[in-house]
Amino acid sequence: MNQTYSRSDSKVEVKGLEARHYDALMNFVTGGTYPIFIRQVVRDMAIQPKDAILDLGSGSGRNACLIARYLSGEGRIVGLDIGPEMLEQARRHCQHLSNVTMEEQRVEEPLPYRDEFDKAFISFVLHGFVQEDRLRIVGNVYRALRPGGQFLILDYDEFEPDQSFWPVRFAFRHIECPLATDFVRRDWRAVLLQQGFGEFQVHRYYFGYVRLLGARKLDIKEGDKLP
Ligand SMILES: C[S@@+](CC[C@H](N)C(=O)[O-])C[C@H]1O[C@@H](n2cnc3c(N)ncnc32)[C@H](O)[C@@H]1O
User: Fold this and answer.
1) Pocket of ligand 1 (CB under 6 A)
2) Burial 25-59 (b: 16+ CB within 10 A, else e)
């Protein structure tokens, strides 16, 4: 816990070949289970037909395409990403969906949204930031959600990597972004409570190493506790 991390430890900016083949890579590293897993996650998100959904770090657009299946013409998705290859794929994958837009936007920088989204989804992105930037993202989400709106974090669950199943331990020591180790050691419910969220819901996958954590925006005064 005492280790300090810097922005240069981050591997969350997926580029080049890895970005162009990101979906295939995820299918491969999960032994072909990713498509089943992500469909289950999207079911667990309990999307309503009229939901307005913000997808932070939207990647190839695979998630947005799956989410869009649950929306009516009145629902919409706004995806945010900075990777040129990711944005190009996402726009191509979602071009048949008139209610999906993809914007080039850093998610840790101030966002132009206030009280307008029903859900904010962030999938395998938050762990890749230093805690200061994670709190900026949480603050951005707080402002973007309408009161009662839901923040949905799909990422690693909380655990001690040094005591995990050996392939997980190996991945966290040698492959995964070093910031992921810091991420899984934190108490995210406590962090989110501090930032104005509550009413938590949890779904777990992959032997409990991955979690969808849902948290509602509570009705506290803007700026009370935000960074
Ligand atoms: C590990 S991928 C996850 C993609 C997608 N959410 C998914 O679950 O398939 C991380 C994504 O975050 C994007 N990203 C990294 N840093 C970002 C930033 N500062 N602002 C917005 N997007 C960012 C990357 O370009 C990449 O698409």
Assistant:
1) 12-14, 57-59, 62-63, 80-83, 86, 106-108, 123-125
2) ebeeeeeeebeeebeebbebbebeeebbbbbbbbb
Q: pLDDT tens across 117-127, in order?
A: 999 999 999 99
What is the torsional sign of CA 215, 227, 117, 65? negative
* Closest protein CA for atom 15 of ligand 1: 13
Tell me how far CA of residue 139 lies from CA of 11, 146, 222, in angstroms: 22, 13, 10
Can you list the domains of the chain with their CATH numbers? 12-216 (3.40.50.150)
Global confidence as pTM: 0.95
Per DSSP, 109 falls in state: S
| Closest of 179, 193, 204 to residue 151, by C-alpha | 193
Contact 11, 78 (CB under 8 A): no
Q: What is the pLDDT of residues 65-107, one digit of tens each?
A: 999 999 999 999 999 999 999 999 999 999 999 999 999 999 9
Interval 26-64: pLDDT, tens: 999 999 999 999 999 999 999 999 999 999 999 999 999
Q: Which residue has the tokens 């890579």?
A: 25
